[in-house]
Design a protein that fits this description.
This protein is α+β, with helices and mostly antiparallel strands. The chain contains six helices and 13 strands.
Amino acid sequence: MRRKRVVPAAPVACAAALAAVGLVGGVVAQDPNGVEDLPPNEIVEKAVDATKSADSLRLKGVATSGPDEVRMDLAVSKKGDCKGTISPREGITAEIIKVGDAAYLKGDEAFWKDREVDAGEAASLLADQWLKLPAGQEGFGELAEVCDADNLLKDVPDPAGEGLTKGKVHEVDGRPAVPVSGKDGDVTGRMEVATEGEPYILRISETGGDEPVDVRMTDYNKPVDAKAPHPDDVLELGDLE
């Protein structure tokens, strides 16, 4: 069976989104944290530290990876558990679950053909079934990277503080946030930081360049509801040989 990487290059896109910016459920009112009164570089520093300290979070949005626009909606944790979807390009979507030492990937026939799974009826057999990838098997490491909050956030850089500006407090998904922006040539990176509760990053974006980014970050410290699929819905690579 000939195939590309089992997992699309989403972790690269996610981490690159955070690094490229250069700053990188329901809404409940919380106490003000006062970050909007700080200089822009200090706002970013506090936001990066708070975000990296979270046990879990959800990333939802778009990040460009080369010629492809990668859409993601992933809940990830520091334990490495995750659940969500990744679309490496328009019309191609896969569901991902990782719990403990096993990862599971489910896509339709179009997804598996895009991965160049074309040996006999393999793509048809895999369509809408969960493919189990235990630890140590090809593809597991890539999914583990996607699902590890520490890995996705490790490339958020320390703020340089040069040329950063802050804007007026406004709402991001119903939560008050202060925007901090930085410019590099024609590219503008923007970080929205919560002004209530912990100063978490609520949104990061990059515009004006060849690889636009727009990712929202929510559900901080919310448990990731990752459970292994029912065994009847699971295949392993050995089942395709």
